[in-house]
Amino acid sequence: MFDGIQRRVVSIWFPRLASDRVLRMRPIEGPFALTLEQSNTNRIYCLNRAAERLGLSAGMPFSDARAFCPDLQSRPADPLADRRFQHALRRWAVRYCPWVGLEDENGLVLDITGTAHLFGGEAELLMDMRQRLSRAGICARIGLGDSRGAAWALSHHGEGSAAIGCALDALKDLPVVALRLEEKTVTALGRLGLRTVNDLASAARAPLTRRFGSSLLMRLDQALGYQPEQITPLADPPHYGVRMTLPDPIGVSSDVMAGTERLLVQLCEKLKSRETGARILCLTLRRVDQDSQQVELRLARPMRDAARILPLFERGIKDVDAGYGIDQMRLEATQVEPMPVQQLSHVSSGGKDRLDDLITRIGTRIGLEKVQRFLPADSHIPERSFLIAPAAYSTPERAWSPIRPRPLHIFPPNPLMGAQSTPTPPKHFRWRRMSFSTARATGPERIAPEWWLEEGSWRSGVRDYWTVETRQGRRLWLFFTPQNPGWFIQGEFA
After folding, report:
1. What global pTM score does this model have?
2. Residue 147: CA atoms inside 13 Å, Cβ hemisphere, count?
């Protein structure tokens, strides 16, 4: 803090942050509430002013609220979306000062020391805040004081401003709960007749310390400005982007690749310093006519190796229309993922890296989502024993370890023609207009349905699976259904 400058703090409280967020997108006339399931009970999470006027409050069961107000409209709450909305408001508040932090789950705290004169004074700054929030449909209560505690107390219980050095005069009539005390402490102080901040400030400090500990008087001193309280601004997320302005326009692919290489080296150093890797890279090429061309590269794995990434840009750069020349290049990692440093070993990972590069090359042509791999699933049902997932967004977690061998090709069950309804494999049968004779049969392997899942084709009961080697050279996977006798084929071994 600079000498001779008094610290000034603003606290903004949004009492209906969640409902204001929803109603800004879809306005509703009349009482409205957001509900959230808590302890197996659907309770009111946040409500608008019309619902508060009818006597409803946050925390009451939703069924009771509907009994009091049959016209109450509701929607499910989304705390994650509310948190993102609070972060958006924090970014908006940076226009008033660089030091903006989050206050609980529905507030902001700003250190406006030395910035109020830019808006014509403190009164004009607060008026500008209120007008902008009101036009945006956001209810807010604002407090201003010499300390964070005083500003919080005024925003939550007084809504006003305290003159410089006059915190006690502004807070003396407020309840002691305005000092951010626990509920049990407030109750105990009320039994002693200490109900306002002035009562607490006038009481003897030694008995209070012995009974309530040092935290009570610390909160009082923080509100009055005797104890410092830091404001930690929320840091902006790191920006992964580099730019290069060229003295002369370029248009040859080799020149663009050379410039991209220089940008990649800088970007990868920044990624390495934060132990992150890029998943999506965007190269923007600005032409001399102010038009721009973009080359997007989606990677199969997080990467920060410039030598490996550069060849993957070659195909996209060849398709760029340079026009009369490119005078500016900008490279940005639009999506990053954690990529911590790993211990090197004698086992080389070159094979895996080449596979990732191959997936990336194919994915740039047909899409990363279309390059898929099979993954094992925890199920003994043949149709459920595997999953199909994009190779770029999945890793083989474990090796395939089936108890019994499974065919390479599995398809929906097809009935066998000419097979007798007996438990032993048929000696002769027809399938797909072909005749087969059984040379050797191995089995049976009984598989029961998973009763806890809805699977219509398995509701008929258990299946007895056999591996049948035919004299025609085909190895087939047959099963017999004892409940409804019949033979079916579901797979073929390689």
Report:
1. 0.59
2. 22
**Is residue 11, in this structure, part of any structural domain at all?**
yes
For residue 334, give the nearest of 299, 373, 378, 370 by alpha carbon: 299
Q: How far apart are CA 235 and CA 338, in angstroms?
A: 18
Residue with the two structure tokens 């898929």? 372
Mark whether 321 and 418 lie in a shared domain: no
Query: From CA 306, how far away is CA 264, in angstroms rounded?
Result: 5
Phi, psi angle pair for 158, to nearest 5° = -140, -40
Identify the domain boundary among 205, 236, 267.
Answer: 236
Question: Would 333 be classed as within a structural domain?
Answer: yes
Angle subtended by helix axes 79-93 and 17-25, to nearest 10? 90
Q: Are residues 73 and 16 in the same domain?
A: yes
Q: Which of 338, 357, 373 is the last residue of a domain?
A: 338
Does residue 249 fall inside a structural domain? yes
Structure tokens at 14: 């949004």
The rounded distance, in Å, linking the Cα atoms of 367 and 365 is: 6
| Same domain? 417 vs 439 | yes
State how far the Cα of 429 lies from the Cα of 416, in Å rounded to an integer: 6
Q: CA-to-CA distance for 415 and 479, rounded, in angstroms?
A: 10
Q: What digits encode the pLDDT tens for the residues 266-317?
A: 999 999 999 999 999 999 999 999 899 999 999 888 989 999 899 989 989 9
pLDDT tens profile 26-43: 888 899 999 998 888 899
Regarding whether 28 and 169 lie in a shared domain, the answer is yes
Collapsed DSSP state (helix, strand, coil) of residue 492: strand
Confirm if 6 and 146 have CB atoms less than 8 A apart. yes
Provide the 10 A C-beta neighbour count for residue 214. Answer: 10
Determine the structural domain holding residue 435 and report its residue range. 409-492
Q: Strands (DSSP E) along 221-351, which ranges?
A: 241-250, 276-287, 292-303, 326-338
Q: Please determine, for residue 350, whether its predicted confidence score (pLDDT) is greater than 80.
A: no
Structure tokens at 102: 């989050």
CA–CA separation, 302 and 292 (whole Å): 27
Residues 137 and 255 occupy one common structural domain: no
The crossing angle, in degrees rounded to 10, of helices 148-157 and 214-224 is: 90
Domain with 191 in it: what CATH number? 3.30.70.270
pLDDT at 327 over 80: yes
DSSP-H helix ranges across 300-424: 306-309, 314-318, 350-366
